Amino acid sequence: MKRVDALLADYGSYHRARGNLICHSFGIPLIVFGILTFLQRVSLSRSGWTAAEVVAAAALLFYAALDVPLALAMLLPLGALDLASRLPGSWKAGLAAFFVGWIFQGIGHARYEGNSPAFLRNLVHLMIGPLFLVNELFRLRPGPAGANPARTAEK
Fold this sequence. Notes:
The chain has helices spanning 3-13, 18-39, 51-66, 68-85, 91-113, 125-138, 147-151. By secondary structure, it is mostly helical.
């Protein structure tokens, strides 16, 4: 089993309930948007590059080390979030998105999953969350055996 498959399977074991997946589908992009909005405030050059693009590029390199097709699939959502993070004129919008995103995450785990977030056990899961969502959307990597029936389970 490739490392990416093991990470996705471990992350997926904490995210089986449909309600939790829906909450994460909103929460994770909001959190990433919030982080990128904060980082847009750190200008690195006159050409408009900011710390947000450096962090996004580092994330893409991490994803490419795990799986090139998934990293390529991450280009579109990460690029869109980076562009969107340039729109708010205030860091307050990023802060609000960041906190609302975490509220979605908390609701998903408390209400639907009944467990604590995966990153509390493995900090790498903070990076795996966005990759997991992209894989759920595009199915570029196989899911764990027998996982699909559990996806519709609700608590």
